[in-house]
Amino acid sequence: MKIQLGKGKKIYFASDFHLGAPNASESLEREHRIIRWLDQVSNDAEAIFLVGDIFDFWFEYKRAIPKGFIRFLGKISQLKDAGIKIYFFTGNHDLWMFDYFPKELGIPVYKEPITLEVNKAKFLIGHGDGLGPGDNFYKFLKKIFTSPIAQWLFARLHPNFGIWLATSWSQSSRASNLEKNEDSFKGNDEWLWAYSKEVELNEHHDYYIFGHRHLPLDLQVGDTARYVNLGEWIRFNTYAVFDGDQLSLETFEK
Ligand SMILES: [Mn+2]
Question: Does domain 8-251 have CATH number 3.60.21.10?
Fold first, then answer.
């Protein structure tokens, strides 16, 4: 993908809103905050990349979508209709996004990392789940979750039951991740950093942008590249912005 940035225009990146979690009232407060952020960035945004786990759970049935998030859906439709480019990525919590966003909102949904060229800068952008070494159990689960047969079978469950089942699963997996103390910087064990370094050996990118880690990070990859993790919006409210020259990791309503 190529974007030519006009003067004064910017590109924004955010991920891991986890809308729906941990409960309706906290999610609603976060949804309002995200909308304030979208309103603010819409002043100079050429494009907005929403890089996965935007919903804590999402499953599209052929003729139905989950209840909720209506303000958020309305806001991104409004910005899209006003001419701002919006790109969605699936994460490990919302990988069951199919044709609703492209058809209803005109917003493309990417399931794999993409390469983006902006003016002279080259980006690799993705949610980050299932990349790099290790995490074999998740990689195995992802094969099942993305299998068309498994998806077809899941869609046969009544939504009241299916959505309850999936939301309980999603909450327990988030709780167990918190227990594993994923909160602190793990140095050379930061596997998305390792993944970026490995890719960089074969193909240069100026910026590696990922979510998934839930920890805002801005790390050097070799001498001329950076790995930026977008953090999340439950505690950090972090996002990245590129002005055509500089990339920075910022905090909204610090
Ligand atoms: Mn996440």
Answer: yes
